[in-house]
Each structure stands twice: as structure tokens, then as C-alpha cells.
Amino acid sequence: MVVGLSQLLLISVLLVTSLLGANTHACEIVVHPSVKDTELSQQKLRLIFSRRLIHWSDGQPIKVFTFPVDSEAHHTFCKEKLGFLPFHLQRNWSRLVYSGRGRAPVHLESYEEMRRAISKTEGAIGYMPHGVDIGKNSGVLILE
Amino acid sequence: MNKSLVLCLKVIGFFLFVLVNSVTKADLIDDKPWQLNGFASQGVIDADSTFIDEDKDISFDVREIALNGQYQALPRFRVSSQIQYREVGDLDPSDGIELDHLLADWMFYSDGIQELGIRLGRIKNSVGIYNDTRDIPFARPSIILPQSMYSEALRDQYLRLDGGELYGSHLLGGVALSWGLAAGTSDYSEQAIRNITGDLVKGSMKSNDHVRGHIQLSLPNSLDLYASYLDYSYSLEADLNPMLPSRAEIDHWVLGGQWSIDRFEVTAEYSEIDLKMDLPIGIVSGPSVMGIVNGDLAQTSQSYYLQGRYHLDDQWAMFIRYDMLHLDKNDKYGKEPIMDALDIRSGLYSYSKTRSLGVSWQPTADWLLMVEYHYVTGYAWVPPLFEPNSANGQDEDWSMIAGQVAYRFGL
Questions:
Q1: Domains with residue ranges and CATH for chain A
Q2: A112-120 long-range CB contacts below 8 Å, 24 or more apart?
Q3: Residue ranges of domains in chain B, CATH in brackets
């Protein structure tokens, strides 16, 4: 009976943990500490990453960094944070660049490059898969 | 000539500057002020009409090469330019390298919610959803866009203008609004007049004025709504009768929407074009019409299409489309001749109904392959628009197959 209760408790704990795990974000938005706009709606993120909104509220230019368009990290970010598939973003960039109306974001290859780029570039925004250790005092602000 | 040469040298200088900086600073991962992007494509189109080839042969002369450079000189000031080489069978025989756009962009106001700016130079025209990137394989849904709306024959008239544009964007709650107001003149190639009049009028085509406005509303549920208005006029100066130039005035508006639901995307646009034209006396000497003309032409064309696109995964996508054009919305199937003096543009040559489907494959981010099929009834968008090509005969239906491979670097 005692064994049965402890097994039940263990199962309950595992179940709760896995449920919590399911709610955890797979991806997080990261910005340079100079960025004051920390409340970013999905629509605003779409505009920022589509390069249609290019200045923060204090007037400093938004510098956008992403992982390669065919990477898993980019795919997860598009689905979770923007609510659409990578091809939408890529098509918007092509439209902007080849019509002369805007600039493309910078593509980075590794998590370390992303951390460095965000930490040293004022006004920078990017994203990072959840759980990647970017270190304390990294100069990168993670937005909840 | 000297002016063109100086402009050409400046553009080449700009690209060299961007290229040198892109290469020498490649080790920096910072957001560089310079960017260089480009693409090249090669296609093949086989149509059993004179749309792409006057002898109805298969055409391999379908290629686009473009080099795009940008320089962010100051946080709010940017220069962008693109040079390109384009060839599309007999529709657009190459004129060599053309200057696609060259503009200076100054965003003079921004507060994170609203942005206002001005662009000066050669500017692409935002008309409908696809016009400003109609030449970019990676930004369009098919090799051949819906011709009712994005006519290859009229490409020069819509594509760009030399002048200025005031633009803005505003975030209103969850809705993003973008707009632009532009004015200037257009630069027409020699082919522009051939696509309209064929052998009917030999001469040149000169842009008088060109005004354009567009607005885009992006709603939170992935619905984008578009409205565009274009008002322009041009003169046709016939070689045979230079003292009597004709003038055309065009009012053109487009409404459209694009809705994305996960892997599925629905696009629809509706457009009307008011055309007023006075033709000079005595210019007619084509193979299908002979006579003296002193005619005014006034008509409103109507076009619309509905397109569905489905992304099977990150590499494969397919589209299906229904596209309709009536040159005269008051006489949709050309029962009456549109000009008293000439019995042209009637019947089969007054409308086009196109059913299209195609598939695209993007094995990597840089490579794109597309194959598509179009089944067409009527010849309204087959140039020359004013003088039906008798080689097309009276067959109601015709079809077209197209394939294209494209590569890009940068973006």
C-alpha cells in the first residue's frame, strides 16, 4: 500500500513536471540591454523581424539577427513567436530588399555568434533556443 | 549620352564600394552598413500562342540576373540600388543591363509606433501585391504571374518611376498600416510600344506624368489587405505622323487580400483600368487592318484572380489559380468592336480566362525550381494588345508550360 502510494506520487510529480515542460517556451527573444521596449506583442515581433518596423521607441535603429532560414532554431522561432512559417518571413525580406524599401537581417551560424552579436550591438534583437546557457553577465537581456 | 554614362559609372562605383566592403569586412558579425544580394534564373516557356514567341516555338530565352546593393550611410539614411539583366522571349528582348532602382531613403521620423520617410530617385511601384517584386523568382508564387493583373506586355508602365515617394507606417493596436504616395515619370523601353501597337504604330512612347498611392493593412490574424491607385499618361509619337502624337490617360486601381492559415495561403485581387486614348490620323498600316483612323478610345477593363497556395513542407509548395481579364467590362466577351473605325479587340481577343497550377521545390534556401501549366481561353493579354496577331487564329483555347531554376546569394 505504501509502495503503491509512493508510486502514485512519483507518477503525479512526473505528470505535473511534463505538463509544465510542455508549457515552457522552446525559444526566447533576446535583446541588447540598451533596448527599452521589453513588451513585444506578436504583431510587433512580426513587424520587427519582417523589417517593417526598424526603430525602437527611443529612436535607435533595430538591428535584427536570425539563424539561417533552413535551421531548426529558426523554424521553431517562426512557429512559436511569430505564428507563421519561415517562408513568410523570407518572402517579406525578399520583397523589401529587391524593391529597395528595406534591408535584410543578419544571419548567424551559431548560438555563440548570436550571443556575441546581441551583446555588442546596441538596439539588437534576436532569439535563442530555450535552455542554451548564455552565461551570466553575458550582456544579453532575455525577454519573458 | 554623357549623362547616362556618368550615372552608369556612379552605379558601378557604388556596387564596387559595397562589394569591396562586404568582402573585406566579412569576418565581422555585426550588422554591417553595406549589404550585397543577388540572384540568377534560367527558364523555359512553351506556349501554343504567340505570347512568348511569335512563331509559337519553345523559348529558352527566359533569364533574369540581378545584383542588389545597399548602404546604410546614417542610422536614418540609406541608399539602395539594383542592376539587372532580363530577357523573356519576344515579350522582352534584352536591352542589356538596366537600372532597376537607385534611390536615397531618408526616414525623418520614427517613434517605435509610427515611421515617416521620403525616397528619391528611381523607385519601384507598389501596385497590387506582386508588382514591385514581379521579377524576383523567390518573391513570387509562380514563374508567370496572373496576366490579367501583372501584364508582361504592360510591365514598363507599372514597374517603376523616376521621382519621389513619401511613405509611412503606423501601428494601431494590433493592426499595422503602411502607405506610400509617389509622383514622377516612367522610362519606357522600345519594346513597350511594340507590345501595345505591334506593327500598327511605329514610334516612341514618352511618359508625361505618373502618380501612385498604395496602402497595406496587416491584421493580427495573418490577413493582409491592399489597395493601390495609379494615375498616369503617356504620348505615342508615331514615326509616320510625328506632328500628331496621340495621348493615353490611365486610371488604374487594385484591391487585394492575402490570408495565411498555417501552410495554406489564399490570395485574391480585383482591378479596373480606365483607358482614354486619342489616336492620330492615318497611322494604320498593319497586316490585319488597313485604313485611316481618327478615333478616340475610352474603355474600362476588369481583371481579377483567386489563388490558393499550399506548402507541403519547407521545400515543396503548390499553387492553383483562376484568372480573368475583360478588356471592356461593359462588353465582356467582345460582341461589339471597341472603336468605330477599327474592328479590333473583339471576340476572343477581348478576354482571357486562365486556369493555372504549378509546383515549386526549394531543396536549399538558395535554390528554387518551379514548373507550371496554364490553360487559357482567349488572347486579351497576348501582345500586341491593339492589333491581334492573326497567327493565333480562332482557336479558343491554348496552353502554356513553363519551368525555371533560380539561384540566389545573400538573400
A1: 26-143 (3.40.190.10)
A2: A113/B29, A114/A30, A114/A65, A114/A67, A115/A30, A115/A140, A116/B29, A117/A65, A117/B29, A117/B30, A117/B31, A118/A30, A118/A31, A118/A32, A118/A65, A119/A32, A120/B30
A3: 33-409 (2.40.160.10)
Instruction: Tell me what ipTM this predicted complex has.
Output: 0.86
Chain B residues 324-353 with a CB less than 8 Å from chain A: none
pLDDT of res. B25: 44
Interface A-B: count of C-beta contacts within 8 A: 134
**How many angstroms separate the CA atoms of A92 and B300, rounded?**
32
Residue type, B56: K
- A116–B29 C-beta distance less than 8 A: yes
Q: Is B334 left (phi over 0), alpha (psi -120 to 50) or beta?
A: left
Looking at residue A121, its pLDDT comes to 92
Please state the rounded mean pLDDT for residues B68-90.
93
Residue type, B59: S
Strands A124-129 and B77-88: unpaired
Q: Hey, are the CB atoms on B139 and A103 less than 8 Å from each other? A: no
Least CB–CB distance from A43: residue in B169, B220, B410: B220
